[in-house]
Structures are given as structure tokens and as C-alpha cells.
Amino acid sequence: MKLKRLHRLLLITTALVAVTSLMIWGYLSGREEMLAEQEGEQLIRMTPRVVGGGVITLDQNARLRSGIIAAPLESVSYRQKTMVVIPSSAVVWLNNKAWIYVQKDEDHFVRCAVATEEPFKDGWLVEKNTIDGNKIIISGAQLLLSEEFRSQIPVGEEGNK
Hints:
Layout: H1 2-41, E1 45-47, E2 55-57, H2 60-66, E3 69-72, E4 74-78, E5 81-87, E6 92-94, E7 97-103, E8 108-114, E9 118-120, E10 123-127, E11 135-139, H3 141-150
Antiparallel strand pairs: 1-2, 2-8, 3-11, 4-5, 5-10, 6-7, 7-8, 7-11, 9-10
């Protein structure tokens, strides 16, 4: 009789340890996923500007992890003007307007409107004096645009559709 009770107690204890271990493992796994998600959300930081869009802060490590690539502008002479080539991969469209992200310094980027009247080899020619900077984002501009406007989503509205 005592052996059966001891056996039952051992089975119950083993089951409790197994369930507790699974709960701890689930908690830690969920926490790890949450931390990874939060780290991804913190790749890009927005700093509001007084006029226009924001200044996007993105250090080199964050650019590498997110696949955002900046490249120098290529200058060409066209109709007695100094123009720069804007590749189509650099252009994002918002409200039927073309925009690019210009690198202001090592870690800061700003969205600027560009004209698309002069098509040129998989992109457009734009007057150099209309671009305030020497490098533009040629890969990942859509990610920056999405991040710029993410702060405008009302809290609590995402799940109420």
C-alpha cells in the first residue's frame, strides 16, 4: 500500500516538474522573441523636424542589419545643367509625389521631394541643386518611409478593424 502511494507521489511530482519546466521554457522563449522584436523596432529612430518630415537616425550597424544602402549621387551634364541620376530603386511614392531619402551625415537621413520629368536609364535626372546632400538611400527607402509614418498610427486602432 505504501509502495503504491509512493509511486503515485513520484508520478505526480514528475508531472508537476515537467509542467513547470514547460511553462518556464515557454515564458523564456516568448520573452526572447519579444526582445528580438523590440530590438528590430529600435533599429530606426525618428527625430521630428519643424518643417516637413523627420530626421531618421540610423547607425551603420542598423543599416547593415536592415539592408538599407546609401550611395553617392552620380553627376551628369544634361542641357547645360549639372544633373544627378536618381535610380528608380531610390524613389518612394507618397500622395502621387516622388520622394528620396538623402543622407545628411553619417547616421541621419531626410525625405526630400524629387522631380520625375526627365527619365534616364532605370531612373530620373534631377537638377543637382535641388538635392541637399551627396548620398541617397538606393535600397530600403520604403522601409524608411514606413517607419517615418508608423508614429502616426493611433494607438489601439490596429486591432479594431
